[in-house]
Amino acid sequence: MSRRIALSVVAGAVVLAGAGAFALAHAADPAPALTHSTARYTAPDGARDGSFTFSTQVEASSGVKSLKVLAWPEKSGLAKKQPTAGEMRQAESARCTPAGADTVRCVYTVTVPAADAASFPRGSWHVAALATADDGTTTLDTEAVDFTVG
Question: What DSSP designation does 7 have?
Fold first, then answer.
C-alpha cells in the first residue's frame, strides 16, 4: 500500500473516531428533568383578584433555555388530545432562576380577575410544562401537577 493511501486511511479513521465520540457525547446528554412541581390556585374574593402559581425545578446538564406552562381543565378537549411540544412552544414562559449547578427554579404566576374565574370549568385541572435545554433537548410533561378550581 502506498504511503499516500495509508495516510488517507489513517486520517479518515481519526475523523470518524472523532465524529463518533462527539455524537456519543451529545447523545449521552439526558433530556431536562422536572421535579418538585406544585400548583396553587386562589379564587378571587370580593374586590381582590385571584391568582394561579406553578413552580418546579428543572435540571439539564447543558443548562435550561426555557420552561413553557399551560394550565388546562380535565373536562376539556385537551383531555382526549393532550398538548403537543409544538403547541406548547406557543404557551407562556415561566421565570427561571439558578438553583444549583445544572438546576433552575421556575415560577409562573398569573393574576385571575373575577370575570375570568367565573367562566373557568370547576373541578380538576392539569398543568402541562415544556422544558427546553440549551442543547435543544426537550421534555414535555402534559400532567406535571394537578390542582382544583372550586
Answer: H
The model's pTM: 0.79
- What are the grid coordinates assigned to 35, written together? 421535579
Reading the block at residue 46, the C-alpha cell is 370580593
Smallest Cα–Cα separation from 118: which of 62, 71, 56, 49?
49
Q: What are phi and psi of 66, to 5 degrees?
A: -160, 160
**How confident is the model over 102-115, as pLDDT tens digits?**
999 999 999 999 99
Q: CB–CB of 67/93 below 8 Å?
A: yes
Taking the C-alpha atoms of residue 25 and residue 119, their distance in angstroms, rounded to an integer, is: 49
SS3 label, residue 45: strand
22 alpha carbon, distance to own chain's centre: 25
